[in-house]
Amino acid sequence: MGIIALVFVGLVVVVLAWVAGAYNGLVRLRNQLENAWAQIDVQLKRRHDLIPNLVETVKGYATHERETFEKVIQARNMAVSAKTVGDRAEAENVLTGTLKSLFAVAEAYPELKANQEFMRLQEELSSTENKVAFARQFYNDSVMTYNTHIEVFPMNFIATMFNFGRREFFEVKAEDEREAPQVKF
Length: 185
Hints:
With 185 residues, the chain is an all-alpha fold. It has six helices and no strands. It has helices at 3-59, 66-81, 85-107, 110-114, 116-151, 155-161. Helix 1 (3-59) packs antiparallel against helix 2, helix 1 packs antiparallel against helix 5 (116-151) and helix 2 (66-81) packs antiparallel against helix 3 (85-107). It is rod-shaped. The mean pLDDT is 88.
């Protein structure tokens, strides 16, 4: 085997090692991204689980606010059934808006504001909203890192070859929806 053949084999080994390293790096980023999404999902599930209890507590004091309760439950159900990241983000934004309506109703009932269960649910929801915000930030940071890696040269060749596609950000679209519902009284 001549020197040229050895150089050729060496180059092939180097290229294969680089492709394997690049592929493994993309897989690690994709797994980090999926983990970040799972963290959002856990926090959103917690949020969704709190809402029926909160609505029931408010119902006990404000029975004639039926339309508000139905909108909150409808928005919650839409958020639970959303499948894509974009649909989920939009549904969560709608849910945040309806929760603001629910808390506006609650402000009109001083007995409700003093209810221990309502106060506990408010605090849990506030804590969950903060966790959702942190999880969303981590997810969006992971999406940015992943998308950057699959788009830069020469990783874009590896990403295309192994079907690594762009991922959506979990975005808050409307400016007034960027704020978490106020749960303080």
